Amino acid sequence: MKDFETYIFDLDGTLLNSLNDLAMSTNYALRWAGMPERTVEEVRMFVGNGVKLLMERAIPGGLDNPRFDETYAKFREHYLKHNLDTTRPYEGIPEMLNILKQRGKRLAIVSNKFYEATQELAKHFFPETIEVAIGERENIRKKPAPDTVLEALRQLGADKEGAVYIGDSDVDIMTAKNSGLPCLSVLWGFRDKEFLIEHGANNLIEHPLDILNVKFNQ
């Protein structure tokens, strides 16, 4: 058995508990447009594949709603100003990342959150540990396509061998599979154990510090 050398993390629901800020910006935009607001639990199930899809699910009629674009733009405007209001790392995350960094591991974030917010949050919360942070960009396919994971590996100068992907959703499970990486599914995020197992999770992590002890076969 051998330690992993490269760790690629999802962001929302894996490193950061951002649910309340996402819900607040969603409802700000819906109120502005005169649309029904959503509960935090509804937003929890809407997130996981980028904020555009979050708003497709939150706005009545989704993309077919004639006010979709302006309501989505209002969400983005609000979220970029308020994504640090209540968002915080999950307990144990900073400690886990610091230990991995001290061990000489390569660390990256790959998220379907738009690029500016991904960069801002990574720099704010993890400036000394996360080397590469990649968000949604127009010229690269988002998760579950492997493109952003492969780009993170390229920027890190790391190979797929010895790399692991860590996330909290079915999208993350598919992303890891499409990237040819093992996947660790976390149980403190936006999806529960039953949901993750139903969607193919086979390596479940109960606490961030458990990540430190996971190894792979040589």
UniProtKB/TrEMBL annotation:
GO BP term (any one): DNA repair
Q: Which UniProt keywords apply?
A: Hydrolase
Please name the GO terms that the record assigns under molecular function: phosphoglycolate phosphatase activity
Write out the pathway annotation from the protein's UniProt entry: Organic acid metabolism; glycolate biosynthesis; glycolate from 2-phosphoglycolate: step 1/1
Q: Which GO terms describe its cellular component?
A: cytosol
Under catalytic activity, the entry for this protein gives: 2-phosphoglycolate + H2O = glycolate + phosphate
Q: Does the keyword Signal apply?
A: no
Q: What class of enzyme is it?
A: hydrolase
Q: What is its EC number?
A: 3.1.3.18
Q: Which family does it belong to?
A: Belongs to the HAD-like hydrolase superfamily. CbbY/CbbZ/Gph/YieH family.
Q: What is this protein called?
A: phosphoglycolate phosphatase
Q: Which organism is it from?
A: Prevotella histicola JCM 15637 = DNF00424
